[in-house]
Structure to design on (365 residues):
């Protein structure tokens, strides 16, 4: 059908959800393509949803999400006026871009990075300025600084970066902030912050407290295992948050999501044990793969990156045949989520097979 529409949308790829686990006869399969937490929500969180939300799904949720906002304010030491909720951190980032950028404006961010960035920016009518990562898969801060001009309305720091899992240092982000005009916002996207063990990493909340143009985005999807309920939040200057509310999707965050978020904050100690377990698994996997001979950027999220170049698609086939769905970036590499112990063992086995075949030059499709 031919219909009138914005032609620039035709230039965008559709956002691709991670593939489900492949069906392999006689083998248990695993989905490790979407950086999901392999643990189910805690019993206390499920009970809270049942007790406080299910009976009220005929009613609109609290659009401001005061129970969550006030709890987050108490947790972080900021005012409720500094907090905005959204359907995951993706939606609060969309709110922010829609607030600050439109036709003729630019948004600067690292690339490759979160796949939604170009979609969000283009949909707002603005232009993406994609700054290539360093060969090690990290932010090129000098190049990002050089990319800022009088058309720049937002600079995004993805920490840890998705899909390379690399951390951004405090010193680098401070250097970036010193170079960016104070009327240009800098977003610290911290979807995986709970998994970041880099002692030198930037801490979004520290920077928010020191700089007038910093916005921090976090989510309940990853460490809190609430990806299916869609709730995230931004912390920023009061006038920025007020502007974000104006462009937000009305009633976007469900009552179930709000109840689950508060219950998850109540159960933070239990959830931290799960985060620690995933970090321990990450360490085990990476140390084993490096022992096999793989060169892998130090991961600081619940996933790691195999930079494979032109071999990417062929190698991806080996994971699929083994019953593993991974996130494939053709011509670049593969992102692998840290999952259940059994899934991680299977990743290790496939990587050993692929490494041996690659170096014996018998890798075949």
């Amino acid at each position: 059908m031919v219909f009138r529409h914005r032609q620039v949308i035709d230039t965008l790829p559709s956002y691709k959800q991670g593939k489900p686990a492949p069906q392999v006869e006689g083998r248990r399969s695993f989905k490790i393509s979407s950086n999901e937490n392999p643990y189910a929500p805690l019993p206390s969180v499920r009970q809270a949803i049942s007790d406080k939300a299910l009976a009220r799904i005929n009613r609109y949720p609290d659009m401001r999400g005061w129970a969550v906002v006030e709890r987050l304010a108490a947790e972080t030491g900021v005012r409720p006026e500094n907090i905005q909720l959204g359907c995951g951190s993706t939606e609060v980032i969309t709110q922010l871009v829609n607030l600050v950028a439109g036709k003729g404006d630019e948004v600067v961010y690292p690339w490759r990075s979160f796949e939604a960035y170009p979609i969000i920016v283009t949909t707002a009518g603005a232009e993406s300025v994609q700054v290539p990562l360093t060969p090690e898969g990290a932010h090129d801060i000098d190049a990002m600084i050089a990319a800022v001009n009088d058309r720049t309305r937002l600079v995004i720091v993805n920490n840890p970066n998705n899909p390379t899992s690399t951390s951004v240092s405090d010193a680098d982000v401070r250097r970036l902030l010193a170079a960016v005009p104070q009327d240009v916002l800098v977003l610290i996207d911290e979807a995986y912050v709970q998994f970041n063990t880099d002692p030198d990493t930037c801490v979004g909340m520290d920077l928010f407290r020191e700089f007038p143009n910093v916005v921090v985005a976090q989510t309940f999807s990853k460490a809190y295992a609430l990806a299916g309920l869609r709730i995230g939040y931004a912390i920023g200057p009061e006038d920025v948050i007020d502007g974000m509310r104006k462009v937000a999707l009305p009633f976007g965050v469900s009552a179930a999501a709000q109840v689950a978020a508060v219950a998850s904050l109540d159960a933070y100690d239990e959830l931290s044990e799960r985060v620690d377990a995933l970090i321990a698994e990450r360490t085990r996997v990476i140390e084993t793969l490096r022992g096999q001979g793989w060169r892998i950027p130090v991961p600081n999220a619940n996933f790691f990156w195999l930079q494979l170049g032109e071999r990417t698609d062929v190698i991806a086939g080996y994971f699929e045949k083994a019953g593993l769905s991974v996130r494939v970036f053709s011509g670049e590499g593969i992102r692998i989520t840290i999952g259940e112990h059994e899934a991680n063992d299977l990743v290790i086995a496939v990587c050993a097979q692929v490494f041996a075949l690659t170096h014996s030059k018998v890798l075949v499709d």
In short: The radius of gyration is 21 Å. The mean pLDDT is 95.
